[in-house]
Amino acid sequence: MQTKDRRFAAVDVLLLIMTVLPLAAGITLKVLLIPPGEGIDITGAYVFFTLPTPVQPLPITESQVNSWMVVLSILFLSLYLTHGIRAGRKTKRQVIAEWIVEKTEGLVKGNMGEIFLGFAPFIAAIMALSAFSSLLSLLGLFPPTSDLNVVGGWAILVFFLITFYKLKCGLGYYLKSFCEPVAFFAPINLVSELATPVAMSFRHYGNVLSGIVISVLVTAGLTGLSDLLLGWLPGVLGEIPFLRIGLPAILSVYFDLFSGCLQAFIFAMLTMLYVAGAFSPEAYQKKKDKAAARRALRRE
Amino acid sequence: MLEIAIGIILGCCTLGAGIAMIAGIGPGIGEGNAVAKACEAIGRQPESRSAVTTTMLMGCAVAETTGLYALVIAILLIFVAPARLVEVLVSAIGR
Question: Nearest CA to CA, how far is B79 from chain A (Å)?
Answer without folding.
Answer: 9
